[in-house]
Amino acid sequence: MEQVITIAICIHAFLGGIGLISGLGSILLKKGSKPHKKMGKLFSISMLGSCLISLVIAWMPNHENLFLFLIGLFTIYLVLAGNRALTFKSKVKVDSIDLLLSGSMLFFSILMLLLGFYGLINSLNNSVLYVFFGSFGLFMTLKDFQFFRSTNKSKWLQNHVGKMVGALIASITAFIVAGLGLGNIISWLLPSFIGTIYIIYWSKKLSKK
């Protein structure tokens, strides 16, 4: 079993590394260009593969970690919803896949918040992280449903950029925490703060266009 876990962790780390490199590459390349699109596809595939493996690892013996499991689900949501946002370039109607993605993440975000508040009351570890990422997920999913109800779907590109950058933030955070071994709260939260500033910058830039 330990050999299987070790192999799974190695594959997870390898795919995560590809996701990190391709994600940074897609940010540096011109938005909408062919290289950007290719890097984006590579990022999406590698991140999905890495996160799916992490979901399995998080339930393996002696590696049980509910928080990492939920963060894995959050990252999968960001990647899938970020790619789904591109479909609104040519459509207006929201379909069942969009609702399922956002609805599922809404449920898990509320779950993270409840676990976080329970942990804060009982002085449990990682409680602040549960609250932070739960709040972040809740905010994003509520914005999704606001977008779905709107008759104007012109902000599809902002949604795409926001979610894909969010997935990249998760990749960078995983590298800092797991790769560099820095597991303090600052290591968990700093990439999110920096990434949020970047998302706000691009949202305003795209809104002007």
TrEMBL record:
Swiss-Prot/TrEMBL keywords: Membrane, Transmembrane, Transmembrane helix
Keyword Repressor: no
Name the UniProt record assigns to this protein: DUF2306 domain-containing protein
Organism: Flavobacterium jejuense
Keyword hit for Chaperone: no
Source superkingdom: Bacteria
Transmembrane segments: 6-29, 41-60, 66-87, 99-121, 127-148, 160-179
